[in-house]
TrEMBL record:
Residues 152-601 form the Topo IA-type catalytic domain. InterPro entries: Topo_IA, Topo_IA_2, Topo_IA_AS, Topo_IA_cen, Topo_IA_cen_sub1, Topo_IA_cen_sub2, Topo_IA_cen_sub3, Topo_IA_core_domain. Releases the supercoiling and torsional tension of DNA, which is introduced during the DNA replication and transcription, by transiently cleaving and rejoining one strand of the DNA duplex. Introduces a single-strand break via transesterification at a target site in duplex DNA. The scissile phosphodiester is attacked by the catalytic tyrosine of the enzyme, resulting in the formation of a DNA-(5'-phosphotyrosyl)-enzyme intermediate and the expulsion of a 3'-OH DNA strand. The free DNA strand then undergoes passage around the unbroken strand, thus removing DNA supercoils. This is DNA topoisomerase 3. NCBIfam families: PRK07726.1, topB. The lineage of its organism: Bacteria, Bacillati, Bacillota, Clostridia, Lachnospirales. It comes from Mediterraneibacter hominis. The gene is topB.
């Protein structure tokens, strides 16, 4: 008898099959003596659309709401139905005794496999493979410690309850809003509060009034001193008259009153979880949250050099400490060779700063695996993300940075006043770089460093208490307070993780709940939520900033208050976690969701709001004759019919990979048929036909694939014997 292993993706299935010595390959599975390894392609089975529950739901009618299925139906996703049928056939084979679920170790991964098994009517025993990386060692260890599928049934119930509750609330509320206001309006318990956060930030920026502030700088003995208010220690004041008076009556000497020297340490920032990695990658490289996740997934699945990416923990478990040296050996290549090699020769002291079992739920922090890395096989984007993770891993294992901080306080005589102006200066002298050596000169730019650990570049000369320093200059400084910054994808991801400040009522219990459950959505879904808000035109990008659209603002004015607050998600996630732990019934939870949905639909039906399209054009839809809307899609501008039932759309322009010959920026392609032309933001314009002709004359440049193939060919030729075929032919000639 054989065991059937179901992985989530083909790449993971191939790795498992290799370790299990399965060699007989087909298009849908790989078979061996004891195991058959097959795979899903993400979700193969999903919840049925409303139309499957009755003919009355085929048309969108507010009078048919709410839709509350008594028995949930599962349907096979058409695009990947061939793979589902293949798995079902394998499950029916008489020589299969057991099913091993090897999908991603998490709530959603559990759902992927369980829905396949439920839809196919599986009755065979289930085992569970639970691993955080797909290296050969991790796979072997995982199969040596398989768990019973029954242990993970509560996790499956929680996953199904999450999907069903989102279906009930999301589909009912979306249909109700769309029917009532005849506009494509979608909402949900995660996407709507996220949109509300963007609106709240924009309102805060709009209402912000800059306030001027003033201060003073003094230069003496080559040291820059900053004025501080003697009572509050603040380095600036809003009172211009006061600071001007100090400046006009200041003496020429600054008397040193205090000199303090103190040895200090700064410790490495914590290991990455997915949110921290997405935030920093967006800040450093402009990667979107979805882009970072996709790169991480490739490094995890294809290259197998990093651990499971969809984690919300920044800590490791104690049982992992024995593997750290092996991981150091594996990543000791290229720029990491020297430091990784040195750390692997030293004793690694695990401490609470990065090893804490209580702070790891499903998955530990993102770190390198035991798989030896081949940097030359990575794309430029993959190298950047890998570099971030490895350097953080090396930094955490390195000793603290030690430095001596010197603080100097001085007083400046003010003529006609008994009070004296107080000035301070600080300087640091690094004794040991410690973890900062990992980052070289970039250490001071780390976003996550605490303020008290940043090392100033100012070097202080030797000064003594009581010493009088002649002023070289004294200047009044001024500035204005700044509003909060617009959200970027990186900062929005961080806000979704910790949305407590966006609760209208500062409820400590809810705040604790949001903190415990990880905020809005999960690390695995936040990137998709942002993509959905962009693709449905509820928000848009201006450069790297995220702005709410008019459509988004109107939606927030029409949607029930409950759906705009993170409070709902906090309550749901706490309940789902209880279900996953076996402490609560999923059926009881769903009954409450149904009651909530009834009240939600009633509130939408009785509302008195209106929706107005403010992006209406004078172009009529060729299908129905109604005026069309101009919207900014993710890849360009398009016209969309205002009648949601018509659904006609037409592209006006799209961003291409064609580069402007003047400024080298990406150009937009506008127009139709023969009239198509490229347009650049710098003002350059070129007909498509002229562009194509120019490219023909310039000749096709070599792609990365061409270069790689050429280098491989050169390497192969370098390794072949000198006596090649031509030489052999000459040697056989009898002269």
């Amino acid at each position: 008898m054989k065991q059937l292993v179901i992985a989530e993706k083909p790449s993971v299935a191939r790795d498992i099959a290799r370790v299990l010595k399965c060699k007989q390959k087909t298009n849908t599975y790989i078979e061996g003596d004891s195991y058959i390894v097959t795979w899903a392609l993400g979700h193969l089975v999903t919840l049925a659309d409303p139309e499957e529950y009755g003919a009355q739901y085929k048309t969108w009618d507010i009078n048919t709401l709410p839709m509350l299925p008594k028995e949930w139906k599962l349907v096979v996703i058409k695009q990947t139905s061939h793979q589902y049928r293949a798995i079902k056939e394998l499950l029916c084979r008489k020589d299969i005794s057991t099913v091993i679920i090897a999908t991603d170790a998490g709530r959603e991964g559990e759902l992927v496999a369980r829905w396949i098994l439920e839809k196919s009517g599986n009755r065979k025993p289930i085992l569970r493979l639970w691993i955080s990386s797909v290296t050969d060692k991790a796979i072997r260890d995982g199969f040596a410690h398989l768990k019973s599928g029954k242990e993970y049934e509560p996790l499956y119930h929680a996953a199904a309850a999450r999907a069903q509750s989102d279906w009930v609330v999301g589909i009912n509320a979306t249909r109700a809003l769309t029917c009532k206001y005849n506009a494509q309006l979608s909402c949900g318990r995660v996407q709507t509060p996220t949109l509300a956060m963007i609106a709240s930030r924009e309102e805060e920026i709009k209402k912000f009034t800059p306030q001027p502030y003033y201060g003073m700088k003094a230069l003496a003995k080559g040291v820059s001193f900053t004025w501080v208010e003697s009572h509050t220690n603040a380095a600036r004041t809003m009172d211009r008259t006061y600071i001007q008076k100090l400046y006009e009556h200041a003496g020429n000497y600054l008397t040193v009153t205090e000199v303090h020297k103190k040895a200090k340490k700064s410790f490495s920032p914590a290991l990455y979880d997915l949110t921290a990695l997405q935030r920093e990658a967006n800040l450093k490289f402009g990667f979107s949250a979805k882009e970072t996740l996709n790169i991480m997934q490739r490094l995890y699945e294809n290259h197998k050099v990093l651990t499971y990416p969809r984690t919300d923990s920044r800590y490791l478990t104690s049982d992992m400490t024995s593997t750290l040296k092996e991981r150091l050996h594996a990543c000791a290549a290229g720029p990491y060779r020297r430091i990784a090699g040195r750390l692997s020769m030293q004793e690694i002291k695990a401490n609470k700063s990065f090893v804490d079992n209580s702070k790891v739920s499903d998955h530990h922090a993102i770190i390198p695996t035991e798989q030896f890395v081949q940097l030359e096989h990575m794309t430029n984007e993959e190298r950047k993300i890998y570099d971030m993770v490895v350097r953080r891993f090396l930094a955490v294992l390195s000793p603290a940075c030690t430095y001596e901080e010197t603080s100097v306080k001085g007083q400046l005589d003010i003529q006609g006043q008994t009070d004296k102006a107080v000035f301070t200066a600080k300087g640091q002298h690094i004794l040991s770089l410690g973890w900062r050596e990992v980052y070289d000169t970039d250490a001071a730019d780390l976003e996550e460093e605490e303020e008290n650990s940043s090392i100033s570049s100012q070097s202080l000369p030797s000064v003594q208490e009581g010493e009088r320093l002649l002023l070289s200059s004294l200047t009044v400084t001024e500035g204005k307070t700044k509003p909060p910054a617009y959200f970027t994808e990186g900062t929005l991801i961080a806000a979704m993780e910790n949305p407590v400040k966006y609760l209208e009522q500062k409820n400590k219990t809810l705040a604790r709940t949001l903190d415990k459950t990880g905020g809005l959505g999960t690390v695995a879904t936040r990137a998709d939520i942002i993509e959905k808000l962009l693709s449905s035109f509820l928000m848009e990008k201006k450069g790297n900033e995220l702005h709410i659209t008019s459509k988004g603002k109107q939606l927030l004015s029409l949607v029930p208050e409950d759906l705009k607050s993170p409070k709902l998600t906090a309550q749901w996630e706490l309940r789902l976690q209880a279900i996953a732990e076996g402490k609560e019934s999923d059926r009881h939870f769903m009954r409450e969701i149904e009651g909530y949905t009834l009240s939600l639909i009633q509130e939408i039906k009785s509302a008195s709001g209106t929706f107005r399209h403010d992006n209406l054009t004078r172009t009529k839809c060729p299908n129905c004759g109604k005026y069309m809307l101009e919207v900014n899609g993710k890849h360009g501008r398009m016209l969309v019919c205002q009648d949601r039932e018509c659904g006609y759309r037409e592209t006006l322009s799209r961003l291409t990979n064609a580069r402007c010959p003047v400024c080298h920026k990406k150009m937009e392609l506008v127009g139709k048929a023969e009239g198509q032309r490229f347009v650049c933001s710098c003002g350059y314009k070129e007909k498509l036909s002229s562009f194509q002709e120019r490219k023909k004359k310039e000749g096709k440049s070599a792609t990365k694939k061409d270069v790689s193939a050429y280098l491989k060919k050169q390497k192969k030729e370098a390794q072949t014997p000198i006596n090649n075929a031509f030489a052999d032919a000459l040697s056989k000639l009898k002269l």
